[in-house]
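WARN no homologs supplied; continuing
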Amino acid sequence: MSAQTVKYPNYTIDSNALIEMPKVIYRLGDRVLVVGGKTALEKSREKIERALGESHILDSEFAWYGGECTYKNMEKIKKRVEKKDFNIIIGVGGGKALDTAKGTADGLDIPVITIPTIASTCAATTPLSIVYSDRGDFEDLFYLKNTPVHIFIDTTIIAESPWKYLWAGIGDTMAKHYEVKTTTRNKKLAHSAMLAKQISFMCAVPLLEHGVKALEDSKNNLESYELREVVLNNIISTGLVSLLVGEENNGAAAHGLFYGLTLLDEIEKNHLHGEVVAYGILVMLMMDNDMEEIEKLFPFYKEMGWPTCLKDLNLSYDEDLLNPVIEKAIEAADTKKMPYEVTGDMYLCAIKELEKL
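OK structure emitted
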């Protein structure tokens, strides 16, 4: 058997987590480029500047990541790093900003710290960048050599962020459980994959228990036990599963359908990743003929306000519209990880049956 090395990022979660940052960066370097989204940098800049001011950092700058996680934007940031000889990158924001920062740092072989300002994905944790075209279409999965060195989760910043990101993040996190449960079916699992499968229950059970209350608190910008638990599962539990489960088990038909749906302007412009993936979970379960689980999830979906049919995504069952989507979905690497071959007819049949509910 070949050698296996598993790397985990450390993390700090608190209402003022960034106060701990000087303790981490002192051993990493002394010149920092902070890369993030415009709103994310605006909301976190004061805390970041205070933390850097209390450290040994000699030089620091802030940079917008470019609006999409593209190889072109990574190259722009790389040139800025090389010009000023920065030796640490701090990524700030949502998934695309963090993926851009991680991808750039990986290409330069310098450490990256992540500061998620929304709890919508596990991007702060994983050694992976999802790369898009300039237009916003999914293009590539960029596997990185290293995880972020440290994650700082400031619950005050996240509680004050738009609630829709937590809402969508819960959907994406739930998918981690259902996809791993599906892809590992009837497989003899090694230690790390089995550990990931057990952790994946944390991507569903606590969310079914705390998700509605956490969403309510997020709408009211309130920090709470429920919000903290959901944030940890959205960012950390999902990331640990991704790190441990093995690429062959990571992702399935729910994400495959999402990548197909990104072809539609309606999805790209008006819907969030986790929202669409939540719909994909139901399609995958229908494809798998798991009506018991669908019936269990439907009341929760209704409470959360997640899509349960195409109309909820402002779409209709039109095969001329859906055929290119399904074609891209069945070619997606995630769909190919299902425990059986998935055809376009299987996707269409599952969508049609879901419409009947």
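The first strand starts at residue 10 and ends at 14.
OK
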